[in-house]
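Private note to self, pasted from the team thread so I don't lose it. Backbone tokens:
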């Protein structure tokens, strides 16, 4: 079973994604802040990380930077799922090593699940 770490501070979104991804056969680990997300990435070695950028304790850019600097976590694919739409944010996340950048308002849950499946293939 593939393991997905979802780093997102919005509890309703966490719950929804956990339900949908579990039905798709994925194990979902939740982190509600960047610091915990980083610790869980190192401890759990997920197959994929779904990462918000606006997070308490440590923002998503910093989490991404540290993930890619760490020998144990640098190969884990990261999909950024955020409300930040500015081109500078997209470019920064991709430069830091994000595999895909999704703006929450522009994608349905089904489309996000499809993106996850494609990255995990």
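Design output:
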């Amino acid at each position: 079973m593939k393991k997905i770490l979802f780093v997102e501070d919005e509890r309703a979104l966490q719950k929804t994604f956990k339900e949908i991804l579990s039905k798709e056969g994925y194990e979902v680990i939740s982190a509600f802040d960047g610091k915990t997300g980083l610790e869980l990435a190192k401890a759990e070695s997920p197959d994929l990380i779904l990462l918000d950028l606006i997070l308490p304790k440590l923002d998503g850019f910093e989490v991404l930077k540290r993930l890619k600097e760490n020998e144990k976590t640098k190969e884990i694919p990261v999909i950024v799922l955020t409300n930040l739409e500015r081109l500078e944010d997209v470019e920064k996340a991709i430069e830091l090593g994000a595999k895909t950048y999704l703006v929450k308002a522009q994608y349905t849950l089904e489309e996000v699940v499809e993106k996850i499946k494609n990255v995990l293939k």
